[in-house]
Every structure is written in C-alpha cells, then in structure tokens.
Amino acid sequence: MTIRRKAPFPWLLILTWLVLLGAAVGGLLTGEFSVTFVGAGTFLLTLVPFWLAPRVGLNLPIGFVTAIAVFLCATLFLGELGDFYERYWWWDVVLHGGSAMAFGLVGALLMLMLVQGSQLKAAPLTVAFFAFCFAVTIGALWEIWEFTLDQVFGLNTQKSGLVDTMWDLIVDSIGALIGAGAGWAYLKGRGGGPLVRAMRAFIDKNRRLFGG
C-alpha cells in the first residue's frame, strides 16, 4: 500500500518544496549554513509520509501529505528560522489550532479503527469525546515537553510562561473540539466541510482498517 493519487501533486505542496529547497540552496551559496540545514531537513521530513505509508500499510490521500508538509514548513522553517512566532502574534495560535483539529481527526479515526468502523458500536458522541480527549492530551504533552526544555536547557519556548501555556491549551481545546465535531458530523452523515471530506477520503482509501 502507498500514497495514491489520481491528479498531479497539488500546487501548494510543490510551492512548499520549492520554498524549502530554494532556501537550502540560497543558504549554501551565501554561507548561511543554518538556513541550509533547516531548509533541507524540513524538506526531507515532508518526504517521510511517502516513505512511511507503504511500510505501515496506509493509503494516504495527497491532501493529508500536503497538510503535513505545509505544517512542517510553517512551524520549523517559517516559525523558528523565519522568526514568525515573534513577528506575528497569531502564528502560534494558528499552528496550535490547526494541529489540534488534525489530532481531533486522528483521534476519531483511531476510535473507528478500534471498533472496525461499526456505527452501532461507535456512537457519534463516543467517537467525538474520544477524539477530543486524544487531541487535548497531545496538546498537554507538548506543553510539558516545552516546559522540560525550558527548565533543563534554559530555553524560552513558553515565552510568557503560565499565560502562554494556558492560551495554548485553550486554543488546543477549541481546535480539538472542531476536529472532534468533524468526526461526529461524519458519523451522523452531516456536513461536507473540508475536515469531514478529509476524514471520508482517508476512510475510503483504507476501508480494510475500518471493517470494510
């Protein structure tokens, strides 16, 4: 099994690759090797889904791969190297909210896998609750990781400390609620938003994991 697609790579994925590779080459030419390292490293990370999917038996929709690549570019390259976290106050909010929504979807999918996708065994509210808890737990663990880095290595990943942590958790909870809501809407046969469509696309390509 692998990543299957009927159309060429999305322009957003191609643009992300061009930005990362362009930065890596530019850094090499100007002697800014940190730029080269981060650009090339981030680019290689965007290729991991293509390598990993066949080995774990998943068929990833190309939209999933694009979302992963854009997120990696936004957080590792633009966020850290481009200093977007400092330049734009809303950058961290967008990334926290977006990742929480994604983990909400992942939680819903995991729950459906556990029950083999049976809507009789997996009530929509049960799936949504599990998905919400899963996403919020990931967010909380991430805050613990940042706190550990700050305490052990003297970094400043949590910026204003408690205030920054609490706002991150609030945003994570809102994003998790949206992602979990998409799982609920899918099982109820409601809505055709991008999150529901993404969930449906993944399930359609991996029916054997969901009892189909």
In brief, what are we looking at here?
By secondary structure, the protein is mainly α.
Architecture overview:
- By secondary structure, this protein is mainly alpha-helical.
- The chain contains eight helices and no strands.
- The protein has helices at residues 11-30, 33-56, 62-81, 84-87, 91-114, 124-153, 162-188, 194-205.
- The two termini are 16 Å apart.
Helices, by number, come to: 8
Mean pLDDT: 88
How would a textbook summarize the main sheet?
Answer: none
Q: Which band does the percent of strand residues land in?
A: under 5%
The dominant shape is globular
Radius of gyration: 19 Å
Keywords: Membrane, Transmembrane, Transmembrane helix
Transmembrane segments: 36-53, 60-81, 93-115, 122-145, 165-187
InterPro entries: YjdF-like
Protein name: DUF2238 domain-containing protein
